[in-house]
């Protein structure tokens, strides 16, 4: 019978209880959705990497001979080793020349090709294998002839099949790009016997190592294996300058991991926000319910129900609501959110077979949500339960409320009736008001984050291509172009010369890979500090990007050891300047500083504002010309992702705002209906009473908005901080976004308030006043 | 042996720095099957006495023997068992659970018994809970048993309240101003019902009221004034 009683009470107070239900629902909806996505995607990644035996270690920096392979295989712990040639070339398409990562391989046991269509690659096979995105988007089918270009050499080959590759789960067009735009560029594989010409230089060695598997992130012991192998490889190959990289240095691997970490972080944020609102909802609803049912509690006690049974009865409200809300939310999240996010993510991360996967975390969060809700229900009703029935059967003695500091001041008397009434109402109902404020704050926070996400992406685009690099075009020279030849082009197109080389950096025990940017003085490449203040690149030494400095734990004035990939000389320099750059992380310096280190300045990139596209189309010394506008285009996909994120955030904001404000309003309305009836009897017009109610709502909204703005900024900062190490994304919110978030919240709040206050006209003065019996 | 024996029972309260007795030094014996009316003005201590008899409150001094068992020092959960097995209460304002129908309000007693301790000293294996229909039939409201309290008149609600109280076959039926919220005719009907329950079924009924005229229907009238028993008289009851 008590269960029936609970069900009817739930129905009677459906608005308040629904808000508790919906908060539990939403929390788990988003959490399980994202958690299942992360688990499913990570499992698919693990399976893909295991199936394709993703390399454990990459060695770069020289022309590796077959003897080198043998030497490496002799090292204890190395299971397999393969050589390959990795180059940047082009595919000559009917309408354009597309960038293509060319890989000439000797075997297919490490980081092997996963066939999508056509024939399977076997060592010694003839023909070409293309990444399936590139083949599909450019209409290249198996059996088609494809013209490729590399260092001026053009050669024809036939497409044998399309593939996926574990090192090309995520890949960018070049170091300057920030987002993938698969199909616009691509990756290709051929047997080494297909290499055009006699000068094949194996510039990469991939290793499979005992003790490193392809599941989960790299553990400490796996990192230690790599650390121990590093000097052994260098010793065996008698070359100290080699770059020995592990999966964490691999852009494809690392970016995906960082993205998953970001999703994991965000997935926890939602249940926390909704749980807070749910807790406040339970406190307000259960406190009021038990207060109202004080006599009923006394009666049940008098009839012989034990305190435990009655306590359990009231705990069951929170228990069942959060249980059903959480479980239904989890089921719905697993069914709807997973596919939504996965489909979007699959466009960026090329991992096959990802499906949502439920984890024990979902059960843990459901249990936590139910336990917290039950505990809060218990705490909310224990006051009414602790006295003997004789006490509980009597009406509660009125609470003694002393006038506050404000009410004793002179100005209090000059305040209007509405202000005084609302002030006292808020004071006497702190938790209810708190719930309203937190709800509005949550609403503003989510809206601000939503708009901020888009602002941040736009900001990064403008920052990168509008402020740091103000060139409209980038001319990429062929690797065999001499400095004099490149200089001539720079002079002709009024360009600025640039050399970007891969490098390793070391500070203490930490080692990171990045790039060294060397530039000639010019007006197209700019530098900014952490607060976006303009900086002139130091002429006295090297400058380090902020993200790299953070990863290495370096501050301005500290020393860093670095060496260029393929060079055996280690350099030690004091970091003279720290600059911020969203994309390329590493060090930058002027040509003169570089040459002081006894390096030759060999620029292969020219930044220019003069359109060289047509003139250089078939130039023998030029690999290609990149248009900044095209590079900005790659950001569109990121924007698309952000739009979806915005939709989720804004939907969350609206549901949160409406549910909490409506709940808060109904509670306040029910409690004040006698007072409002009295005001009506006294002659107050309905409009005036509505005004008083709306006035209070306005206070709550203003307080909530003020509180929500810093939290919105914090949340956005958290999201941006979770971006991969190679990206320096900033949480930026433009002024209009503040306005949109505030206006959105205010309009939502006003609409709910208007809708609720309309009920004033329905108050029956006689009924409301009779209700006291 | 008396069913109830109160020995030097007192109940004091403290308000701020001041203490006062709601009942003081009460000695009282009640026999099984008696219809007792406790009379007295407001604040005399009659409700406190009723609360102590019903195990809803504990005395601060003295002994309270029920069927030979001293329950004065009972803990909260022991008192709950005492109520669950021995006491039925009829309230002035009926105190029906508004979200349960008349039938469900009475059926609630099954839950009370189901939840109470089976190892309780009061569980003698012979007291069974009445079927809700049977209890409702006894108060003559069978045809309205599926109505919610809000659909019933005051008199009907009080009948259901009585049905609920007798459903667990209590040895002691306590009535706190059971006609206080009813008009005279309906009040008389309720009194008749309570008198019948005592006379025909041999139940011990203790009724608290401030209405002197109810003294006529009782077997025994106890007058309470200033926290003490002023008089305790056997009466020759009239049939209502």
Largest sheet of chain A: 6 strands, mixed, barrel
- Categorize the overall geometry of chain B: globular
Distance N terminus to C terminus of chain A?
26 Å
Class by alpha and beta content of chain A: alpha+beta
Unreliable stretches of chain A: none
Shape of chain A: elongated
Mean pLDDT of chain A: 85
Task: Detail the poorly predicted runs of chain B.
Answer: none
The strand order across the widest sheet of chain A is 2-3-8-5-7-6
User: What pair of chains forms the biggest interface?
Assistant: A-B, 26 and 36 residues
Share in β-strands of chain A? 15-25%
Question: How do the strands and helices of this protein lay out in sequence?
Answer:
The complex is a heterodimer of chains A (773) and B (240).
Chain A: H1 2-12, H2 14-52, E1 57-60, H3 66-74, E2 78-92, E3 97-105, E4 114-118, E5 128-131, H4 132-137, E6 145-150, E7 153-164, E8 186-191, E9 204-209, H5 220-236, E10 243-246, H6 251-292, H7 294-303, H8 307-348, H9 360-385, H10 389-392, H11 410-414, H12 417-428, H13 430-468, E11 473-477, H14 483-492, E12 496-507, E13 510-519, E14 527-528, E15 534-535, E16 542-545, H15 546-552, E17 559-564, E18 571-579, E19 586-590, H16 591-596, E20 605-608, E21 622-627, H17 628-633, H18 635-682, H19 686-721, H20 735-757, H21 765-770
Parallel strand pairs in A: 3-8, 5-7, 13-19, 16-18
Antiparallel strand pairs in A: 1-9, 1-10, 2-3, 2-6, 2-9, 4-7, 5-8, 6-7, 11-20, 11-21, 12-13, 12-17, 12-20, 14-15, 16-19, 17-18
Chain B: E1 4-15, E2 18-30, E3 35-39, H1 46-53, E4 61-66, E5 69-70, H2 76-86, E6 87-90, H3 102-115, H4 132-138, H5 154-167, E7 172-176, H6 184-201, E8 204-209, E9 220-225, E10 228-234
Parallel strand pairs in B: 3-8, 3-9, 6-7, 7-8
Antiparallel strand pairs in B: 1-2, 1-4, 4-5, 9-10
Helix pairs in contact in B: 3-4, 3-5, 4-5, 5-6
């Amino acid at each position: 019978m008590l269960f029936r009683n609970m069900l009817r009470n739930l129905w009677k107070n459906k608005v308040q209880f629904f808000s508790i239900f919906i908060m539990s629902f939403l929390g788990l909806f988003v959490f399980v959705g994202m958690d299942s996505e992360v688990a499913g995607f990570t499992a698919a990644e693990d399976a893909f990497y295991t199936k394709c035996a993703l390399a454990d270690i990459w060695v770069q920096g020289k022309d590796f001979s077959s003897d080198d392979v043998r030497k490496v295989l002799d090292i204890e712990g190395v299971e397999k080793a393969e050589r390959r040639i990795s180059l940047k070339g082009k595919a000559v398409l009917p309408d354009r020349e597309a960038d293509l990562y060319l890989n000439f391989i000797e075997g297919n046991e490490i980081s092997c090709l996963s066939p999508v269509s056509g024939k399977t690659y076997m060592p010694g096979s003839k023909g070409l294998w293309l990444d399936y995105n590139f083949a599909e988007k450019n209409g290249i089918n198996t059996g088609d002839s494809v013209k490729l270009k590399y260092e001026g050499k053009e050669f024809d080959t036939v497409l044998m099949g399309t593939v996926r590759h574990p090192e090309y789960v995520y890949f960018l067009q070049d170091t300057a790009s920030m987002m993938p735009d698969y199909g616009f560029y691509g990756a290709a594989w051929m047997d080494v016997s297909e290499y055009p010409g006699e000068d094949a230089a194996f510039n990469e060695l991939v290793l499979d190592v005992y003790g490193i598997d392809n599941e989960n992130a790299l553990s400490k012991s796996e990192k230690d294996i790599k650390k121990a192998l590093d000097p052994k490889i260098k010793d065996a190959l008698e070359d100290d300058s080699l770059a020995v990289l592990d999966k964490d240095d691999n852009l494809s691997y690392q970016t995906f991991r960082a993205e998953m970490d970001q999703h994991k972080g965000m997935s926890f944020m939602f249940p926390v926000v909704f749980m807070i609102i749910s807790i406040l909802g339970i406190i307000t609803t259960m406190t009021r319910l038990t207060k109202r049912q004080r006599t009923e509690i006394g009666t049940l006690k008098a009839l012989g129900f034990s305190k435990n049974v009655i306590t359990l009865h009231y705990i069951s409200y929170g228990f069942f609501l959060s249980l059903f809300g959480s479980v239904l939310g989890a089921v719905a999240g697993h069914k709807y959110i997973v596919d939504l996010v996965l489909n979007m993510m699959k466009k960026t991360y090329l991992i096959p077979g990802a499906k949502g996967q439920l984890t024990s975390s979902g059960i843990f969060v459901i249990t936590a949500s139910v336990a917290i809700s039950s505990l809060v229900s218990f705490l909310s009703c224990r006051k009414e339960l602790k006295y003997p029935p004789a006490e509980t059967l009597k009406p509660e003695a009125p609470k003694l409320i002393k006038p506050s500091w404000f009410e004793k001041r002179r100005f209090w008397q000059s305040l209007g009736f509405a202000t005084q009434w609302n002030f006292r109402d808020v004071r006497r109902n702190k938790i209810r008001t708190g719930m309203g404020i937190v709800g509005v704050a949550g609403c503003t926070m989510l809206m601000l984050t939503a708009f901020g996400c888009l602002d941040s992406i736009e900001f990064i685009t403008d920052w990168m291509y509008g402020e740091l690099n103000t060139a409209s075009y980038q001319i990429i020279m062929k690797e065999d172009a001499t400095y004099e030849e490149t200089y001539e082009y720079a002079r002709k197109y009024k360009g600025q010369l640039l050399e970007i080389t891969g490098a390793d950096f070391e500070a203490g025990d930490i080692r990171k890979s990045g790039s060294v940017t060397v530039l000639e003085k010019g007006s197209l490449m700019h530098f900014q500090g952490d607060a976006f203040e303009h900086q002139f690149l130091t002429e006295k030494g090297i400058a380090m990007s902020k993200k790299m400095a953070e990863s290495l734990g370096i501050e301005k004035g500290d020393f860093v050891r670095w060496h260029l990939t393929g060079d055996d000389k280690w350099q030690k320099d004091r970091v003279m300047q720290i600059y911020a750059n969203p994309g390329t992380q590493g060090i930058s310096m002027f040509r003169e500083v570089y040459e002081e280190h006894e390096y030759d300045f060999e620029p292969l990139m020219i930044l220019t504002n003069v359109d060289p596209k047509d003139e250089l189309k078939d130039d023998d010394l030029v690999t290609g010309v990149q248009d900044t506008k095209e590079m900005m285009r790659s950001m569109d996909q990121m924007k698309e992702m952000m739009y979806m994120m915005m939709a989720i955030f804004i939907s969350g904001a609206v549901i949160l705002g409406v549910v909490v404000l409506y709940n808060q309003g109904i509670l306040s309305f029910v409690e004040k209906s006698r007072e409002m009836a009295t005001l009506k009897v006294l002659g107050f017009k309905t409009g005036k009473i509505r005004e008083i109610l709306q006035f209070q709502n306005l206070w709550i909204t203003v307080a909530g908005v003020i509180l929500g703005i810093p939290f919105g900024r914090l949340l956005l900062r958290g999201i941006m901080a979770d971006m991969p190490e190679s990206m320096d994304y900033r949480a930026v919110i433009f002024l209009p976004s503040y306005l949109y978030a505030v206006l959105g919240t205010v309009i939502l709040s006003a609409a709910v308030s208007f809708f609720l206050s309309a009920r004033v006209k329905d108050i029956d003065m006689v009924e409301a006043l009779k209700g006291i019996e | 042996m008396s069913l109830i024996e109160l020995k030097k029972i007192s109940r004091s309260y403290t308000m701020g720095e001041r203490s006062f007795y709601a009942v003081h030094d009460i000695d009282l014996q009640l026999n099984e099957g008696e219809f007792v009316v406790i009379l007295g003005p407001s604040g005399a201590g009659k409700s406190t006495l009723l609360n102590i008899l019903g195990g809803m409150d504990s005395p601060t001094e003295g002994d309270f023997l029920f069927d030979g068992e001293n329950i004065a020092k009972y803990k909260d959960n022991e008192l709950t068992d005492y109520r669950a097995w021995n006491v039925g209460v009829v309230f002035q304002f009926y105190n029906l659970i508004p979200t349960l129908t008349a039938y469900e309000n009475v059926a609630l007693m099954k839950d009370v018994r189901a939840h109470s301790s089976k190892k309780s000293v009061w569980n003698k294996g012979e007291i069974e809970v009445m079927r809700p229909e049977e209890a409702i039939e006894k108060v003559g409201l069978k045809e309205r048993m599926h109505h919610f309290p809000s659909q019933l008149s005051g008199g009907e609600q009080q009948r259901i309240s009585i049905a609920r109280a007798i459903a667990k076959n209590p040895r002691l039926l306590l009535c706190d101003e059971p006609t206080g919220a009813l008009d005279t005719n309906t009040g008389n009907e309720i009194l008749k019902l309570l008198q019948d329950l005592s006379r025909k079924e041999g139940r011990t009924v203790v009724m608290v009221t401030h209405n002197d005229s109810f003294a006529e229907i009782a077997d025994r009238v106890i007058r309470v004034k200033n926290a003490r028993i002023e008089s305790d008289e056997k009466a020759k009851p009239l049939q209502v």
